[in-house]
């Protein structure tokens, strides 16, 4: 076959993508704007815009008439962010969170549900998850046919092909047959990634690390895990293990992957069992020795010396973890995220001070302001990246049969 046979088709796709990229980065543009941005001829630009409008990827915008203007105003075009939608899922051990966003990344719906205590069986977890997805679609006011892609974050190591690495204690909780449920049955491309890695995508997209090309995000609630962005690229490793914290048992002064919330709870409960009767006891009450992380942080803020000492121990321990991440990956910024992010602000001064003793030029430390939406927002970004890469292969609902 003549290798030049596909040249017109390739040229057409190149022109379509060039115009689409401009449309996606601006509110609305004229043909003249597109000519200047792409270098294409006017005839080509107009033909491409008409093609994109017919496909459903673009629409004509209102063109206000200037005072005294004669003739028709210049046609204006804009990207149709409602041509399709993406889903972002955060599948934890206890909770499923779902976000729905248009192609501009604007969240238009969502849902949240709890899994059974201790995780539950796969069939029950899958049913709860799919029900949450359906509720999110209903909340967004869209049908399944308008979904282009699903990004999913799980609290487990995920290989480059999106498969949860077997052999992990929690792996069975995330092996729910979602590729069949969503991929084969509903026709949605299904992307699966480790939750800490998605947290890094979210922070670089919309968080305190927005635009930072060298960034580490540490999820620090119950267990520690990190996502690393180096030179603007999310790192994975051969089996998705980049940023995993499984080696912390080898680190003196750390010893395991326990996160900030778990440590605060364990050490606060131990203090109560040993007879502490300060502010932690006031908050917990006289009938139990089980302290929550929230009560330990609150007691420390109220001046309880035992609670303050617990937070200091956590900060010094975390500084060793941060030093490892800094030494291995050299980020400019490390963000603490997860369920304890809001409380972790109290740890920043001590962590910063301790880290300076381990690293010659320590990175800046910050806490995430995205709360429980951190991982599902990263899942949205993962799905949007897929859509942007495959834009011309996808078909908006207006062009689909049925």
UniProtKB/TrEMBL annotation:
Signal peptide, first to last residue: none
Gene3D superfamilies per record: 3.30.420.40, Winged helix-like DNA-binding domain superfamily/Winged helix DNA-binding domain
Similarity field: Belongs to the ROK (NagC/XylR) family.
InterPro entries (alphabetical): ATPase_NBD, ROK, WH-like_DNA-bd_sf, WH_DNA-bd_sf
Xref: Pfam families: ROK (PF00480)
Species this chain originates from: Arthrobacter sunyaminii
Top-rank taxon, per record: Bacteria
Protein name: ROK family transcriptional regulator
